[in-house]
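Researcher: Can you fold this with protoporphyrin IX containing FE in place?
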Amino acid sequence: MSVAPPVQAGLSRADLLEDYDRDRAGFVLRAARRYGPVVELSPGTVLISDGEIAHDVLRRTNRDFLMDRDRAWRPTDSRRGEDALDSWMHARRTMLSALSGGLVEEHLRWYDGELTTLMDTWATAGRTGDPMPPLVHLSTDAFLRLCVGPGTARHTRDGLSALVADLLGALNPIVRSSFELPWFLDRFTARRRRADRAQHRLDAALRALVNRPPDGGLIAILRDAGVPTDPLVRILVSATIASRLVPAAANAWLLHALAVHAPTGDPSHIVDEVLRLRPPTWLMHRATHAEEVSGPWRFPAGAALMISPYAIHRDERHFPDPETFRPDRWAGARLPAGAYLPFGGGPRWCVGTHLAKAQLTTAVEVFRRFRMEDVSGVVTADTDSTMYPRGLALSVARTD
Ligand code: HEM
């Protein structure tokens, strides 16, 4: 097979930034349609919107393709053989197995109750207002409750929740402008120092819990399974960040879809279809160290790769009429690897996949106990970082 460099879009970095910032997801979709599956948007920045190539890059992450940033957008050692990566992979294996066990069953009963209470509050008011803030609070609290167990007082979770909110607030300008500053300059900015202080406070609070794990929670399970303190704190910080905005955005898109389409079918198909059209993690990042080949493409050394599930999920070969919301397309669906990536893929796929899917399926069941109508003016997809609905408002009533 002959190997070629990516198609060149020939944009200057300034043009790229300007076009991209105007409408990020739209820009990515247009670039994919105009230039094809692999395009070098500006020197060293390559967009991948083909599932097969994306799958290969994700599969070879930690080896040929690197995750050179952590969730706080700091440079990390991400190659096999590096202590930081090896201990991370051990911690994530242990967390994955803990989150597929009995812990989640009790959690879902609690989650159903909390979401029902929220819907009841909205039904009493007759409408939601912006559903994002309460959904963000619930997502954060849900994961923290799993971490510390049901027996830990609510104010402990609220304290942690405030620290997670501070850290994400501080990281937001950094992640939003991730193309602007090279990290070695970013280190010296006031915003980075603010994020460092916020991370330090969350680290310290989680470290205290790791040193004296409360009974019945994920932290105690991971501790008992022998995950050492530092990697445990690191993955807890990452998972608390990951379980705040992203699951809340998925829930908000779900509310929107149920209000607009009132689908009646299998809840898991509804969840799959919502995450296909509105993958909250709509863009993933990888980097090359050396020159690498994937399929017919040769990626330059030192490239920043952008992988877009948002574009990949609109591939007509796998999803005919891709812009249409059709949960029934998932009945008996058999897709090639890489065609559907809401939770990523390869060795760094989402640790919370099982938990998140179970929560979302529970959410469909709760939402269906209410009658909802979309009373938003215009709903747009905010894509500054996580893709979430902006401008969403629903009327809500009890069905009984
Ligand atoms: C609808 C909900 C969720 C979606 C759509 C989602 C999506 C994703 C995606 C796409 C990635 C991979 C990013 C990449 O490869 O660059 C990821 C990573 C991750 N997610 Fe989730 N996630 C969700 C919920 C959660 C929850 C509830 C947790 C809590 C445990 C979680 C923890 C993580 C962690 C720790 C990682 C980093 C894994 C690593 O780097 O090894 N996620 N998530």
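Model: Folded with protoporphyrin IX containing FE in place. The chain has one domain: 7-398.
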